[in-house]
């Protein structure tokens, strides 16, 4: 019986390795996110609206790091922050999202403000359809805002409110007035203090972590509003928050407090550009990596099958 228990334990360890490998591959493939999440229609009630601004230069770098084929769409004006979305949010949880499964995105409803959206709510991921970001944000988040608030119950109102908030609280102005300028490194505390001084609210700071260089880049700033469309503290939103003993309370961030945050002025070279490899060589490298991962998964599966057979043999021998 002891041998049987040992075999079962080994099977459990192998299964954990297999599950981790499988989950990693799922993280790399998110093209079906909208379709999968939209299967469940949620209760639209929420507590806050998270208005997320992104630094398009960092967003472009992150996009280009994922594939040598990725190209970016950047606003024609330099050094402007753009809009990622307006996200209805329940405190201490994520969502709601996709609150109306029958909703349809109609880009023609945005005709009066489309030129502004192309500049200030731009889809950095240029490989995708130009209106794909707007479609995603409306169906996932806008439908929930529309179900609860008359002020945001149409595409025109929802996206128009984002443009209004950007004009009032653009991070290029908020950070710039506090001396936080592109091309420099800052600490989380320095950025947090500028946001507190300018907005008088606790704001979330999001970094992009480059796995290759181990560097962190200023990526997004998330400003919260209540249902009266007034500025509100972001305390309670589900985010990686770090507690620091200071008068302002906690800092809401996923940034590493012990490392500088780079606020890039230009898009850094991607890892593919640094290698100077041809597209053909890069494609071959990706195929090789894919085959290697597939071989590892097959090897893990064979190990599980062999362990299963061993367990069955041990069970039979102990009868």
Topology:
Layout lengths: L1 H27 L4 H5 L10 E7 L1 H11 L15 E8 L24 H7 L11 H17 L6 H15 L1 H7 L6 E3 L1 H12 L4 E6 L6 E10 L5 E2 L8 E2 L8 E3 L7 E3 L7 H5 L3 H39 L2
Parallel strand pairs: 4-8, 5-9
Antiparallel strand pairs: 1-2, 1-5, 3-9, 4-5, 5-6, 7-8
Helix pairs in contact: 1-10
Describe the fold and architecture.
Residues 1-21 form the signal peptide. GO terms for molecular function: hydrolase activity; ribonuclease T2 activity; RNA binding. One of its GO terms (biological process) is RNA catabolic process. It holds the Pfam family Ribonuclease_T2. It is found in: Endoplasmic reticulum lumen; Lysosome; Secreted. This protein has 319 residues and is of the alpha+beta class. It folds into two domains: 48-263, Alpha-Beta Complex (Ribonuclease Rh, Chain A), CATH 3.90.730.10; 269-304. It contains ten helices and nine strands. The chain has helices spanning 2-28, 33-37, 56-66, 114-120, 132-148, 155-169, 171-177, 188-199, 271-275, 279-317, and strands spanning 48-54, 82-89, 184-186, 204-209, 216-225, 231-232, 241-242, 251-253, 261-263. Strands 1, 2, 3, 4, 5, 6, 7, 8 and 9 form a nine-stranded mixed beta sheet that branches. Helix 1 (2-28) runs antiparallel to helix 10. The longest helix has 39 residues, at 279-317. Residues 6-32 have low confidence and may be disordered.
């Amino acid at each position: 019986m002891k041998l049987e228990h040992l075999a079962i334990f080994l099977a459990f360890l192998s299964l954990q390795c297999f599950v981790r490998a499988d989950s990693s591959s799922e993280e790399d493939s998110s093209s079906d996110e909208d379709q999968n999440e939209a299967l469940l229609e949620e209760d639209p009630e929420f507590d806050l609206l998270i208005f997320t601004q992104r630094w398009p230069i960092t967003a472009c770098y992150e996009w280009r790091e994922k594939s040598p084929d990725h190209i970016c769409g950047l606003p024609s004006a330099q050094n402007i922050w753009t809009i990622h979305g307006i996200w209805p949010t329940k405190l201490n949880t994520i969502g709601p999202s996709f609150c109306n499964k029958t909703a349809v995105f109609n880009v023609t409803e945005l005709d009066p403000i489309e030129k502004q959206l192309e500049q200030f709510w731009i889809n950095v991921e240029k490989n995708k359809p130009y209106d794909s970001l707007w479609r995603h944000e409306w169906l996932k988040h806008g439908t929930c805002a529309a179900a609860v608030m008359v002020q945001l119950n149409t595409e025109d109102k929802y996206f128009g409110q984002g443009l209004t908030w950007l004009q009032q609280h653009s991070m290029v102005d908020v950070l710039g007035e506090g001396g936080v300028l592109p091309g420099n490194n800052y600490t989380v505390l320095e950025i947090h203090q500028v946001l507190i001084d300018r907005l008088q609210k606790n704001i979330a700071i999001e970094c992009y972590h480059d796995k290759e260089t181990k560097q962190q880049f200023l990526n997004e700033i998330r400003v919260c509003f209540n249902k009266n469309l007034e500025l509100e503290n972001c305390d309670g939103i589900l985010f990686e928050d770090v507690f620091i003993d200071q008068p302002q309370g906690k800092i809401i961030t996923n940034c590493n407090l012990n490392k500088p945050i780079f606020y890039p002025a230009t898009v850094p070279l991607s890892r593919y550009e640094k290698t100077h490899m041809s597209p053909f060589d890069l494609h071959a490298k990706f195929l090789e990596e894919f085959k290697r991962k597939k071989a590892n998964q097959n090897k893990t599966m064979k190990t599980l099958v062999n362990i299963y057979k061993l367990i069955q043999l041990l069970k039979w021998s102990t009868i």
